[in-house]
Amino acid sequence: MLMSTSLDTHHVVVVLGDGGSTDKLVGLTNEFIIKRGVKRLFVHVISQDGRPKYFERFRNVLQSLIHCSLIIKYEGSTTNDFIRLVKSTHDLSKLVVVLVGEPPTELKDFLKGLGINYISV
Amino acid sequence: MPDYEVILTSDRTMMSNHHGKEFLGFLATGPAINMPEKVWMWLAAPKLRVDEFGRPKEAPYGLRKVEAKLIDEGFKAAIIDPDYIHKYLNSMKVLMVGHHDFFAYGPPSIGWWVITGKEPVNRLSLMRFMRSEVVRKAKERGVRIIVGGPGAWQWLWELDFWRECGVDLVIEGEVERVIGGVVRKALDGEELPDYIYVGPSDTPSIDEIPVIKGGSVNGLVEIMRGCPRGCKFCSVTLRPLRFIPLDKICEEVKVNLRAGVRSVILHSEDVLLYGADGIRPKPDPLIKLHSVVRGLVKDGNIAWSHVSLSALKYAEENYKLVSNIVNNYIRVGKQTFIGVEVGIETGSPRLAKIIMPAKAAPYPVEAWPDVVEDAFRIMHENYIVPAATLILGLPGEEPDDVVKTAELLDRLKPYRSIIVPMFFVPLGALKHKDWFRKHNINKEHIEVMLRTFHHTVYWAEEIMEKFYLKEPYLAPIRLGLKLFIQYAKWRINKLKPEIEALIKA
Predict the structure, then answer these.
(1) Cross-chain CB nearest to A69 (options B167, B198, B428)
(2) For chain A: N or C, fewer Cβ within 10 A?
């Protein structure tokens, strides 16, 4: 089912930090979808803009994704929200993290501490 | 009083049967011109007949599908007229608002908005409904609000309003496979995502598409989903092609008949491709379809929602299929014509090749203007009255493309039809492109808009008097529209010097 955490659903965490542009994210996301044959993408968003204002920076990405199902969920605004989200993930090796702009330093440190690779745009 | 926990509804511009005339609904995509909004709304979207519980006799087809799916999955769900939602404040846990053009960003609404500078009534009506006391009270009581439908993407452009209304989830696409799970989560108080787009891999199979349980507006029933032509501006073509089995279509016609809806609108992106071999219509499935439906509705009206001009030309030239269907199954009894929407989009073969290379198929795209004219002639001869659309501002459009469109319009003068220009809206494979805005309008566009205006007002009176609105009970509507046309003619004449100066500049 679409909203279940099935194997078919790929999870990505996007952190919308200060500055940065989501334009590069458009190309990266499409590449990811095509390379991995993604049919369903669940995007968890961390943003200080709040809900639903974060879509202002993110809708250009949605506009370009027409070939797979999408679920977009706001997960909070702080590093603690991000940590909570990552810790609830069952398989960290499958977690994809994208940092847009400049996120808080402690967030990057947390990821490095867990050995989680991330993509910066 | 039923204790529905899930209420489906929409605003008045959607919750209307438009006086039993589907195309009158298009008035709701425009602003109230030279008359009070109340009068315009009465012309475009009068109230529906409802039972004592506020359940409408007819409701938008998309809402009926979602309602049917939820009922099949055991939910206490019902479509309720917006004027009756207040009766369910105690039982309602989820409010689902459906729409195909929430904020008038879709065509043709956006075009009318740009041209007149006034917000279309569908936008005003929807926003008024979302801000109404009943919706506010529902939210205060913790009701989850889910909005959906083909126009759902528009909420991404109205984020302040989204927050103001407290919308919990925006969902877009063919939701039959997923909506039960979503509503279950909503009822259980679980967190919902903000936005869901149902992509091709999650679209429902034929077996997963339910039969509607209540009447649909003007008897609309779908006969297929998806379209094989792949036009880049279209979102429907992204969906897989599926033909609805005849027995399922008949079941839905019977639901409508039981609800007292005696007409049928066979709905598809291209009715003539029902049961087709790719993009080539086949006589047998179409004749069988029309024969069976006519047998059910007897004296009622049969209409088509959309056909493609190339399929129409092919069907007539190869099988005399169009005249066969019209003469034997449409123009029988009281019915004297059939209305349908068709897409011209552009008169430029160059632009057609880029944007819609298969629109003319099986004819070569270079022959597109001839295909259009031949199809219009066939329609005129067979009492098929089309409302045709053009798209201005397509990506890659050059001035000469628009000139070619104007030239094609000249060729279409002799054929009874309404032709409406629309401004490009990023949809389908062109979702990421730029909108066509006021500052993009050039003199070639103005020429095309003027030609469509003169063509439409020339034919509109005959269409109203002899075909579409000829019934005596529609006299007030005819009068209202005639006055509007006279006003529009007067206004354009008044603006003539300015328009001519713009064209010459």
Answers:
(1) B198
(2) N
- Give the residue from A3, A12, A68 with the most B CB atoms within 10 Å of its CB, the best one to mutate: A3
A4 in contact with B, Cβ within 8 Å: yes
Identity of residue B310: S
Number of domain units in chain A: 1
Q: What is the CATH number of the domain that holds A72?
A: 3.40.50.2000
Question: How many angstroms separate the CA atoms of B261 and B49, rounded?
Answer: 11
Answer yes or no: do B400 and B433 share one domain. yes
* Domain interval for residue B397: 214-504
The distance of B364 to chain A (nearest Cα, Å) reads 28
Contact yes or no for A59 and B157 at CB 8 A: yes
Q: Mutate one of B161, B191, B201, B433 to test the A interface: name it (highest A CB count within 10 A).
A: B201
CA distance B174 to chain A (A): 11
Shared-domain flag, residues B281 and B249: yes
Residue A45 falls within a domain, yes or no? yes
The secondary structure of chain A, three-state, reads CCCCCCCCEEEEEEEECECCCCHHHHHHHHHHHHHHCCCEEEEEEEECCCCCCCHHHHHHHHHHCCCCEEEEEEEECCHHHHHHHHHCCCCHHHCEEEEECECCHHHHHHHHHHCCCEEEC
B38 with B161, same domain: the answer is yes
Whether residue B241 is found in the same domain as residue B196: no
Walk along chain B (505 residues) and give the pLDDT tens digit of each residue: 899 999 999 999 999 999 998 888 999 999 998 889 999 999 999 999 999 999 999 999 999 999 999 999 999 999 999 999 999 999 999 999 999 999 999 888 988 898 888 999 999 999 999 999 999 999 999 999 999 999 999 999 999 999 999 999 999 999 999 999 999 999 999 999 999 999 988 999 999 999 999 999 999 999 999 888 778 777 777 778 899 999 999 999 999 999 999 999 999 999 999 999 889 999 999 999 999 999 999 989 999 999 999 999 999 999 999 999 999 999 998 899 999 999 999 999 999 999 999 899 999 999 999 999 999 999 999 999 999 999 999 989 999 999 999 999 999 999 999 999 988 877 777 777 777 777 778 889 999 999 999 999 999 988 888 887 878 888 888 888 888 888 888 888 888 777 777 666 6
Domain with A26, as residue range(s), is 9-120
Q: Collapse the DSSP code of B113 into the 3-class scheme (helix H, G, I; strand E, B; otherwise coil) and give the result.
A: helix
CA-based nearest residue to B363, from B374, B377, B376, B379: B374
The answer to whether position B321 is within a domain reads yes
User: Could you give the number of structural domains in chain B?
Assistant: 2
Q: Do B432 and A68 touch (CB under 8 A)?
A: no
Residues B218, B198: one domain? Answer: no
Maximum CA extent, chain A? 37
Q: Is residue B207 part of a domain?
A: no
To test the contact with chain A by mutation, choose from B157, B159, B233 the residue with the greatest count of A C-beta atoms within 10 A, namely B159
Residue A3 lies in a domain: no
Task: List for chain B the helix, strand, coil content (%; round to 5).
Answer: 50, 15, 35
Cα B234 vs. chain centroid, distance in angstroms? 13
CB pairs under 8 A between A and B: 83
| Same-domain pairing of B225 and B299 | yes
Same domain (yes/no): B242, B148: no
Residue A106 within a domain: yes
